[in-house]
């Protein structure tokens, strides 16, 4: 083992530089998530929780990272997830042999302690890897301090956090404060490293790596119910693992693990998605109900119930995963950011009124009610949500795309869908009132939001088409076979499709793709809409085209750059994985197992 000097700045082309998003894998345990790049670089991890400052912030140009990479710089990269889990295996084929590194966050995770597992395997020959551990709190501004070695352990502080690293007995403290060195593993052997980051002193005996791996493997097996078959069963199981990993036990599901990754370079659209959007909870909850995994559905119902009962008509579009308000948006001027956008945290959506989220709450609570998963408080939340819709449905709102307040047609129709779903599970008297309210809102939308051609239009004062208008038909706002649904579907495909992908809307006169990427959520909606219309071939074509818009790890972002075939915006986007899961099961591409007793 030798000690490496810490470079003052990363050099172009090395493992510290940001990679295209398709090359990153996700590790997640419900309380936080990490991104691992192709050079074995953990370049993103917030601690202790999702929305806390990052200790590994290389993704945004910060100094913190944790790298385990072949010492031989001549290698090609690959990797895969172990079946039914978020255990990632990096694989490097070098000119000296094959090296693998198994990576995971301890699952299930602990709220106040991060446990990151890394296990190096020398597959066929002796392997030499470089190790560099450089945690820096507050997005890279606060380096390690008080680092000391105790046998095979390293103990240190980083801001207010306590760190312990096992398996790095030969690492040395470099001049810049990082722990650096080389590790040699004999052919066929393995070497474990465990990094713990906690809000409290780590005075207990260090955990045994084998026990941590067994706990993680067992927990993932117990958490996932693999589908019984189908062409897309592997992707469906993985999509559920992503949703499970992004969901805090008993709390909310973050929209994504990252912040400030641009939707379009230098366009100013880069946001912090490390929060729980109400709408996203609905998409994921409905998918979980369909696939028969009620533990995730129960977590989502509990989160939504608590928020609705606490905030009522002041329900915000998004919260932290523990239900707290989303912080105000502000920049991080000391970081260069991911190429194409300045870094920022917090989200201005906290100030918006979005009418459609109340319809989404009713949709997912109704799905839970059909499966007898609602307690008294959840029923109270359903009644309160319907009262809020009755009081506020006539108001302008910011809509699903979080734009300036208008009378968005989608918002009205999703409330109609939610009320109809709730009416179907409610007692007769209550259900009758909700059905009548749905009829009144639909009549208003038909008067003001119907295009002369017979399709739905974006807003009462905007005759353009919008892909979000596929959802009301999918969710049951209108009877099967309603001509307005089919007219809308045809108009959306005619005006917003390009190369087999679907865009949200035309923001201006530029060609599709110049203003923003294709929206993967809408591609899956097109698949479901085609299926509902009886066009099985088109449904499967839309599904397969959308399913291909990912990188080697299989993760989806919000947008897809069709021309460059690149992922855009924050990673991974939870509601895209939820819609993929729902679409696969609906189309019969995956068959859920019977729900266990």
Structural topology:
Layout: E1 25-28, E2 33-36, E3 41-46, E4 54-56, E5 65-70, E6 75-81, E7 88-94, E8 97-105, E9 113-122, E10 127-134, H1 137-140, E11 144-150, E12 153-158, E13 161-166, E14 172-173, E15 179-185, E16 190-198, H2 209-223, H3 233-245, E17 276-277, H4 278-291, H5 294-311, E18 318-319, E19 330-331, E20 344-345, H6 356-370, H7 376-392, H8 409-423, H9 428-448, H10 471-475, H11 483-496, E21 497-498, E22 501-502, E23 518-519, H12 520-532, H13 536-547, E24 559-561, E25 566-568, H14 574-586
Helix pairs in contact: 3-14, 4-5, 4-6, 4-14, 5-6, 5-7, 6-7, 6-8, 8-9, 12-13, 12-14
Question: Can you walk through the features of this model?
Answer:
With 597 residues, the protein is of the alpha+beta class. The chain has helices spanning 137-140, 209-223, 233-245, 278-291, 294-311, 356-370, 376-392, 409-423, 428-448, 471-475, 483-496, 520-532, 536-547, 574-586; strands spanning 25-28, 33-36, 41-46, 54-56, 65-70, 75-81, 88-94, 97-105, 113-122, 127-134, 144-150, 153-158, 161-166, 172-173, 179-185, 190-198, 276-277, 318-319, 330-331, 344-345, 497-498, 501-502, 518-519, 559-561, 566-568. α8 runs antiparallel to α9 (428-448) and α12 runs antiparallel to α13. β14 and β15 form a beta hairpin. The termini are far apart. The strands form six sheets. Strands 1, 2, 3, 4, 5, 10, 14 and 15 form an eight-stranded antiparallel β-sheet that branches. An eight-stranded antiparallel β-sheet has the order 6-7-8-9-16-13-12-11, covered by helices on one side. A three-stranded antiparallel β-sheet has the order 23-24-25. It is built from 14 helices and 25 strands.
């Amino acid at each position: 083992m030798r000690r490496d000097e810490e470079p003052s700045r990363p050099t172009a082309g090395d493992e510290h530089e940001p990679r295209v998003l398709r090359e990153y894998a996700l590790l997640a345990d419900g309380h936080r998530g990490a991104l691992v790049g192709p050079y074995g670089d953990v370049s993103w991890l917030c601690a202790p929780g999702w929305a806390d400052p990052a200790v590994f912030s290389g993704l945004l140009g910060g100094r913190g990272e944790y790298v385990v990479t072949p010492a031989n710089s001549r290698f090609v990269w690959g990797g895969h997830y172990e079946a039914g889990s978020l255990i990632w295996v990096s694989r490097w084929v070098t000119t000296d042999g094959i090296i693998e590194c198994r990576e995971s966050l301890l699952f299930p995770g602990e709220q106040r302690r991060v446990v990151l597992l890394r296990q190096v395997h020398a597959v066929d020959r002796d392997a030499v890897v470089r190790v560099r551990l450089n945690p820096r709190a507050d997005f890279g501004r606060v380096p390690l301090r008080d680092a000391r070695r105790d046998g095979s352990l390293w103990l240190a502080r980083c801001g207010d956090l306590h760190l312990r690293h096992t398996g790095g007995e030969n690492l040395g403290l470099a001049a810049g404060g990082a722990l650096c060195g080389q590790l040699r593993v004999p052919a066929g052997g393995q070497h474990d490293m465990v990094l713990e980051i906690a809000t409290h002193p780590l005075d207990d005996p260090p955990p045994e790596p084998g026990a941590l791996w067994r706990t993680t493997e067992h927990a993932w097996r117990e958490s996932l119910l693999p589908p019984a078959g189908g062409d897309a069963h592997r992707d469906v199981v993985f999509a559920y693992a992503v949703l499970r990993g992004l969901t805090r036990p008993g709390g909310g599901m973050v929209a994504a693990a990252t912040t400030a990754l641009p939707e379009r370079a230098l366009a100013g659209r880069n946001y912090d998605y490390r929060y729980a959007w109400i709408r996203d909870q609905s998409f994921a909850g409905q998918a979980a109900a369909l696939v028969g995994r009620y533990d995730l559905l129960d977590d989502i119902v509990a989160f939504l119930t608590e928020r609705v009962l606490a905030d009522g008509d002041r329900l915000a579009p998004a919260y932290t995963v523990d239900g707290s308000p989303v912080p105000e948006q502000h920049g991080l001027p000391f970081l260069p950011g991911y190429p194409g956008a300045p870094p920022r945290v917090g989200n201005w959506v906290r100030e918006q009124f979005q009418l459609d989220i109340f319809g989404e709450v009713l949709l997912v609570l109704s799905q839970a009610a059909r499966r007898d998963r609602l307690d008294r408080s959840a029923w109270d939340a359903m009644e309160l949500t319907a009262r809020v819709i009755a009081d506020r449905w006539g108001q302008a709102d910011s809509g699903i795309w979080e734009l300036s307040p208008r009378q968005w047609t989608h918002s009205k129709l999703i409330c109609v869908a939610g009320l109809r779903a709730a009416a179907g599970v409610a007692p007769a008297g209550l259900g009758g009132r909700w059905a009548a309210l749905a009829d009144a809102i639909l009549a208003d939308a038909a008067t003001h939001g119907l295009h002369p051609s017979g399709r739905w239009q974006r807003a009462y004062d905007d005759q353009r088409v919008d892909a979000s208008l596929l959802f009301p038909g999918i969710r049951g706002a209108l009877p099967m076979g309603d001509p307005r649904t089919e007219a809308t579907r045809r108009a959306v495909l005619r005006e917003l499709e390009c190369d087999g992908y679907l865009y949200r809307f035309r923001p201006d006169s530029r060609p599709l793709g110049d203003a923003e990427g294709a929206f993967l959520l809408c591609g899956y909606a097109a698949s479901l809409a085609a299926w509902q219309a009886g066009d099985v071939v088109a449904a499967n074509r839309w599904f397969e085209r959308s399913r291909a818009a990912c990188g080697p790890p299989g993760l989806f972002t919000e947008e897809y750059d069709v021309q460059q075939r690149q992922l855009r915006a924050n990673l991974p986007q939870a509601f895209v994985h939820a819609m993929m899961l729902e679409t696969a099961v609906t189309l019969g591409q995956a068959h859920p197992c019977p729900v266990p007793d």
